[in-house]
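Forum: Protein Structure Q&A
Topic: Joint prediction for protein chains with partners

I've read a bunch of threads here and the consensus seems to be that you should model interacting components together rather than docking separate models afterwards. I'd like to see that in practice. Below is the full input, 722 residues plus whatever partners are listed. Could one of the regulars post the assembled result?
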Amino acid sequence: MNTQTTTSGSGTSAASDAFDQLKETVGDVTVTDPKMCARNVDVFYGDNQAIYDVSLDIGNNEVIAMIGPSGCGKSTFLRCLNRMNDSIPSCRVSGDMSLDGEDLYSTSLDPVLLRARVGMVFQKPNPFAKSIYDNVAYGPRIHGLASNRAELDDIVISSLQKAGLHEEVHDRLDAPGTSLSGGQQQRLCIARTIAVSPEVILMDEPCSALDPIATARIEELIDELRQNYAIAIVTHSMQQAARVSQRTAYFHLGKLVEVGSTNNIFTNPQHELTENYITGRFG
Amino acid sequence: MTNPTDDSKQVAPRKDSTSIVKRTLARRYAAEKRFRFYGATAIAISLLFLVILLGSILVKGLPAFTETQMLIDVTLDAKTLGVEEGASEQELRSANYNALIKKSLREMFPEATKRKQKKELYKLVSTSAEYQVRDSLIANPSQIGQTIKVWVLADDELSALYKTGGLTDIANVTHTRLSEQQITWASSLNEQSRLKKQFNATFFKNGDSREPEQAGIRAALMGSILTLLITFLLSFPIAVATAIYLEEFAPKNRWTDLIEVNINNLAAVPSIVFGLLGLAVFINFFELPRSAPVVGGIVLSLMTLPTIIITSRAALKAVPPSIREAGRGLGASQLQVVTHHVLPLAMPGILTGTIIGLAQALGETAPLLMIGMVAFIVDIPTSVTDAATVLPVQVFLWADSPERAFLEKTSAAILVLLVFLIVMNAAAVFLRKHFERRW
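Posted by a regular:
Agreed with the consensus. Here's the joint model:
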């Protein structure tokens, strides 16, 4: 374990001592019914290490929230789960990550196939410059999931329904996806992700660009989606983490400090750093 | 953590800050006003020069779009023609019409008796007049032996005088190479209403000619079209593929840096160097035909490539990375992300770059001189291997000619070049609109 920290910009000296002394994640990183497992993951951008020895499970039918101050590596960790970091040439990942026991970074697993199974929703709504219909139909089309137009229509409509967007847009599926409001666009992006029938959905601060009403709508949606998918969500809002997740993981400067049930983390944090963050003393 | 009780470090608002800001405000607004004035002046000056340029070209070039025809009475005498009655079309084609026209001119102006006078008289009609008489006879062979009225093309000097109205005021004629005698004859023709102006179709039908009234733009226009077609077909796909590869696929390392630097350098190479390359490589080594649009097109596409590559890369770079992430997040392969999402969004920018490159190629003369496209081309090129010239070279050739009538031809050729450019730009604007998507 690397104990050397060079960028401890925040926190009291006591807290930074606590960070230096952090050897192991507090709490149980495993779950009984894991969908994805990460063990001893280190991530480097060139010479900078972004993630230190993180182990974490993502369970079926659960929402796990990842919280922590900016630059703590939670987004990096999330992006490693479907190899979105592959496109960054200087990024290097070591350790084991698996989906249903299959190694994510082995040569036998195609990243394109992986991303069809592990979908992602981004911070900023990013619909394609296509119609609403084509936005949702895009994934099924490239993967050949529908054999005819009727099947495709079914997928599109049911995805829009699951994303809670169908009622608002059913009469203008030909309108450009970019003509929707921010919250609608983000739900469109979720519908687009669901349309590929992934097993896991990764969400990278999905509500940070949205107003409270749109946020509430999406949080409701996340809760419904939990019935069928494993969901990992990165968020800056602790209220949001408390509302939508069953488990919460607290990251600090590239290390996973504490994992536990959301209830325990917010009411009875074990580690000093977690407590500081939760109570708003820094971060 | 800062100590909230420590007052010394707190920033208090300065009492006089409002008056300080007020004082600087006037200065700032004055600076802005000055800047706006400079900008407006710059635009006004450039507009003024544009108007002067276009105005002078239009004034000089527009007369070239009309030509002067002269009505002559020709007796289709079989003996002078050198054919027998009931001759075949073949024989009629090779008959001597020149003698007929000369004869009819002599009959119109019997006072021309001396050899020199006759020569001056014959010069009033274009040398292409015989073809007009021939065509009218071939169209109706039974006219042999009759006297017919034929409109024939007038000579360029007579035409220039007639078009400028010089024939109605012969006392004040300046700038003409016609002799006094010729002017008298011409004004007498004018009085008999034997002269008329009409749209100069010849200009758009013919290739180049030594006689200004017969010279046309067609060969150069076709040459330009064929050359640009080759340029577009070669440079557009290669440049776009290069830009996409470098921007989306290639690893960023020393080699791609080197390639990038070299592409940028290539954009700065003087165009005549590309001409030398074309001469050495394509004509001397690969033995492609000289003066041909195919070689011109290859050379110009080498010149255009860096422009399109650089603008295409900029257009690709401008596509927000979130779109690429969205595509990849759904499991699209890198190529699918590029062709489905990035390229459509970058297309307007790529098209703009292509048009800039092609417009540059359209106006290029120097490299084409090196590969022999400066030739005197009478025949209209129909394929990319025919000898051809291009519009700017034609402008250059005509500007060099001594006959005054080529002056208006030069301006007219520039107008044709500009219209070509406008049509090309309009096509690009149309395509841009077609590809543009709201983002």
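Chain B touches chain A at residues 1, 251-252, 320, 322-333, 336, 340-341, 344-345, 437-439 (CB under 8 Å).
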